[in-house]
Write a structure and sequence with these properties.
The complex is a heterodimer of chains A (221) and B (263). With 221 residues, chain A is an all-alpha fold. Chain A has eight helices and no strands. Chain A is globular, with a radius of gyration of 21 Å. The mean pLDDT of chain A is 86. A six-stranded mixed sheet of chain B has the order 8-9-10-3-11-12, with helices on both faces. In chain B, strands 2-1-4-5 form a four-stranded antiparallel sheet, covered by helices on one side. In chain B, strands 6-7 form a two-stranded antiparallel ribbon. Classes of the chains: A mainly alpha (221), B alpha/beta (263). At the A-B interface, helix 5 and helix 6 of A face helix 2, strand 8 and helix 3 of B.
Chain lengths: 221, 263
């Protein structure tokens, strides 16, 4: 039995593709939701006072301070006793969104704080509304500053999706692991899985570098 | 010259924590007049100017812009904070030029000037562009439309900031130490632009350490010290004042620093 023996994949490609597609979907949807929630909650944390600010702070501490695996278990297995009945995929999506948003809040918060106050004052005296200042002054600048740490977190989140199989989501990891246990040859599927994640991460990294170059034009000269 | 009042400050008080920065300042800024506000650092002159644009809240007294109370709404003698939209409306005709320019670094010179015009000024994008180009030409930067702030010298950046303010066609421009962050050899180009604005009849209040500018361009000078306006009047009267010892000391310090050639 060779580690290069991929004959166990014969007739399983539809399943593998379905798993791959599910992994990609959960990854994209989960991190997209996480990004949106992250920017909104970070804006609240920076601009609000009192209870809303404390709630966001608590949210970040809680979800950054615990492992994704534990959060997924609580959501999926503990959810029903709280009246939260989720399919594995829904629990996985929600888990990824919550976990990644907690990482993104911290990044966006530091981004907001890096835009000098004077620029905000100039925008206010120019008549811009709070939302316009956010959209036209703060976001474009902070996005550029935080692109490196954003890409970094995105890379970590990509790898975290492999954990989803633990709550019986038929993602790529689950499908390949299944093939491995059925053929009693676990190495080829795992090599394939590793190659897939590596390839995906290379794509994310290359895209991230291109984005960095494109957006930071005005910072040098 | 008409006596129309653009900004009227009455008995203004401002505290930062326990520190009383302004202790009852009254000042009236008339149309087409240039008022220079001078004084030692920490005297409250920048705070006064920032209050007039409501970049700072104030604790007592009134600021009226063309007759409308700034920052607060009064109902039967009870005062509460005004809504952001209301504040924006009252100070719509107030321009402000900052010591550190505060340009938006991710926008070109043209965008810095044009963007607020179509975002908040009710102009279409082509109208905004046209007016922005005219404003930048007015400050001598017609050839720098596509430059980012980082590609411009400090003096050019400050002129873009002045163009941004001019383009909103304000009734008054407040200048907060507009040349203090500039290298000495480029202070002149910014002062020249300000001189031209004054000659065009723009109403201006200028917090400055440029005594030459104050002496030659201002219609009035206010000397502010320890949170009150200690002396106010035409430049000649203020700069030659012999009665106020604190003003005398302030001016002596200034002239000592600038007359290093003579003994």
């Amino acid at each position: 039995m060779s580690i290069w023996d991929f004959s166990g994949f014969d007739g399983r490609w539809a399943e593998i593709l379905a798993g791959l597609s599910l992994t990609m979907q959960l990854w994209l949807a989960g991190t997209a939701l996480g990004l949106v929630a992250g920017v909104v909650l970070a804006a609240i944390q920076v601009n609000a006072r009192g209870l809303p600010r404390a709630l966001v702070r608590g949210y970040v501490t809680l979800f950054r301070g615990t492992p994704l695996l534990v959060q997924l278990f609580i959501l999926y297995y503990g959810g029903p006793s709280l009246g939260l009945l989720l399919t594995p995929a829904a629990a996985g999506l929600l888990g990824l969104a919550i976990y990644s948003s907690a990482q993104f809040i911290e990044i966006f918060r530091s981004g907001f704080e890096s835009v000098p106050r004077g620029q905000i004052e100039a925008a206010r005296i120019s008549g811009l509304s709070r939302t316009q200042i956010l959209a036209h002054i703060e976001l474009p600048q902070m996005l550029i500053l935080i692109v490196p740490s954003l890409i970094n977190t995105l890379v970590i989140m990509t790898k975290e999706t492999a954990i989803l199989s633990a709550i019986s989501i038929p993602d790529l990891t689950a499908v390949l692991y299944g093939i491995g246990s059925e053929t009693f040859n676990i190495i080829p599927p795992l090599l394939f899985l590793a190659a897939f994640y590596w390839g995906l991460l290379e794509c994310v990294t290359v895209l991230g570098r291109a984005l960095e170059r494109r957006t930071s034009r005005y910072l040098s000269h | 010259m008409s006596d129309e009042t653009i900004i009227k400050v009455t008995d203004l008080a401002k505290r930062f924590g326990a520190a009383e920065v302004l202790k009852g300042v009254s000042l009236s800024l008339q149309r087409s007049q240039v008022t220079c506000i001078i004084g030692p650092s920490g005297s409250g002159k920048s705070t006064l100017l920032r209050c007039m644009a409501f970049l700072e809240t104030y604790d007592g007294g009134r600021i009226e812009i063309e007759g409308r109370l700034l920052g607060y709404v009064e109902n039967q003698g009870v005062r509460r904070a005004a809504a952001a939209r209301e504040i924006a409306d009252v100070r719509r005709n107030v321009g402000f030029v900052f010591q550190h320019f505060n340009l938006w670094p991710h926008m070109t010179a043209l965008e810095n000037v044009a963007k607020p015009l179509w975002l908040a000024g009710g102009l279409s994008k082509p109208e905004a562009r046209e007016r922005a180009e005219a404003a930048l030409a007015k400050v001598g930067l017609a050839d720098k439309l596509g430059s980012y702030p980082i590609q411009l010298s400090g003096g050019q950046q400050q002129r873009v900031a002045i163009a941004r303010t001019l383009a909103k066609e304000p009734h008054i421009i407040l200048f907060d130490e507009p040349t203090s962050a500039l290298d000495p050899e480029i202070v002149g180009e910014v002062l020249q632009v300000m001189r031209e604005l004054a000659a065009d009849g723009m109403t201006m209040a200028v917090v400055t350490h440029e005594m030459g500018f104050a002496a030659h361009v201002a219609n009035r000078i206010a000397f502010i010290d320890q949170g009150v306006i200690a002396v106010e009047g035409p430049p000649r009267d203020v700069l030659l004042d012999k009665d106020n010892p604190r003003l005398a000391r302030f001016l002596k310090n200034f002239f000592d620093r600038n007359n290093f050639w003579e003994d």
